[in-house]
Amino acid sequence: MRLQPVVGHLASRLRDGLFLPLAIEYPFWEERFPEALLRFGEEVPIGDAGMSGADWGVLLEEKLTEAQEGLEREAVPRDTSRFEVLHAGSSGVSGVYDAWRRFRARIKGEELRTSHGEEPP
Q: Is 26 in the same domain as 70?
């Protein structure tokens, strides 16, 4: 993960505030459209640290990488219980698509669930 040098230089000029790394992933789990998974990393207080722009760049890259790796560990198992749903859209795209999913699940001997772990109606 590489940030543009300007991010570190910006941090070196600030005297107050914090950076909050945010990792975002758009996996295609069960639906035609992707889910949006987000994970905030550890806060990085700015303060008057007196660090150079290059040092800030390295630190912020490390913190963002940690957030990305944490999100990866949570996303790979495809376990929706690991996430808090902030907004749930409708499941499926159309009756035809849902019928296809049910048919495919029966053929494979799988139990059909929505992307939020619930059984479809």
A: yes
Q: For the chain, how many structural domains are there in total? A: 2
For residue range 34-91, list pLDDT tens digits in order: 889 999 999 999 876 789 999 999 999 999 999 999 999 999 998 888 888 887 766 5
HSE of 5 in the Cβ direction (CA atoms, 13 Å)? 3
User: Which residues span the domain enclosing 45?
Assistant: 5-87
Burial of 17 (0-12, 13-18, 19+ CB in 10 A): exposed
47: left (phi over 0), alpha (psi -120 to 50) or beta: left
pTM (predicted TM-score): 0.68
